[in-house]
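Design request, tokens follow.
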């Protein structure tokens, strides 16, 4: 019996756990950071909460005799990616990065690249006045002091009642449809979309909707992927897993 640890918190991790659910030769554990209050129940075992840095993950890999580690965290979870690289090396456990494919710019896209949320915030006053902000809860602070701009903020989790004036919040989880995204942007008279370059299908509808409406998109660039093997699809991850578990 081989034991696989999936670092999760993404649709890709959930799809992989699902694809492995009928494998009687594998024990699958999915690990979540604990950011969402009611995480989706996944097949196999689940554990929730940080490991305690590289050292903590090394101990976990050894204690639970993990045979393969699949880092399927979000493309922007750079700290966890780096810790997974170091811990897997130290524990001698084969590791794969499973990450969604990046978005490719299409004709008609009006993307303005920003290196981080702070640069995105600096760019906004020159681009528009009614902003659709979809960067996630972690980066909201970078946009807190932009007076004179109106924001529609969408996050998965509620963000409480600490919103300043001119901020309107929606709590929703993808996947979204292009017509719904275009309708939302028109309803709120959005003139700029701000997003992370997260890639994948589940949240691409806002990108194609912005293209259709000819809106500029401030695109926060993705951190570089960790070294080592990378899969963009579940079937490629399954092939890697068969290879390392014999
Ligand atoms: P991060 O900055 O790379 O990681 C911060 C810390 O969170 C890590 O050092 C680790 O704590 C813990 N952690 C992260 N992922 C974990 C996992 N799957 N299992 C156990 N501990 C984990 O990560 P983040 O950007 O805050 O993202 C946290 C989680 O949310 C990830 O699982 C990611 O897949 C998901 N997520 C992130 C984004 C995003 O935009 N960043 C979007 C959607 C979902 P220890 O050092 O204590 O081990």
């Amino acid at each position: 019996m081989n034991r696989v640890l999936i670092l999760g918190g993404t649709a890709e991790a959930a799809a992989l756990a699902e694809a492995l659910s009928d494998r009687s030769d594998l024990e699958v554990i999915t690990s979540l950071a604990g950011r969402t209050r009611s995480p989706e129940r996944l097949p196999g075992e689940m554990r929730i909460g940080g490991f305690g840095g590289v050292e903590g993950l090394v101990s976990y890999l050894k204690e639970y005799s993990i045979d393969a580690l699949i880092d399927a965290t979000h493309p922007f979870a750079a700290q966890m990616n780096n810790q997974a690289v170091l811990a897997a090396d130290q524990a001698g456990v084969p590791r794969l990065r499973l990450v969604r494919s990046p978005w490719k710019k299409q004709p008609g896209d009006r993307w303005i690249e920003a290196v981080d949320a702070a640069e995105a915030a600096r760019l906004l006053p020159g681009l528009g006045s009614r902003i659709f902000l979809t960067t996630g809860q972690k980066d909201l602070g970078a946009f807190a002091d932009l007076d004179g701009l109106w924001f529609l903020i969408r996050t998965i989790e509620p963000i409480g009642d600490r919103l300043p004036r001119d901020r309107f919040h929606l709590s929703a989880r993808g996947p979204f449809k292009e017509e719904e995204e275009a309708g939302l942007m028109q309803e709120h008279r959005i003139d700029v979309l701000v997003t992370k370059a997260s890639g994948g299908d589940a949240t691409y509808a806002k990108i194609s909707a912005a293209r259709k409406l000819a809106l500029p998109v401030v695109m926060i660039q993705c951190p570089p992927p960790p070294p080592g093997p990378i899969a963009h699809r579940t079937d490629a991850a399954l092939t890697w897993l068969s290879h390392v578990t014999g």
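Comment from the thread starter after seeing the answer: thanks! The mean pLDDT is 94.
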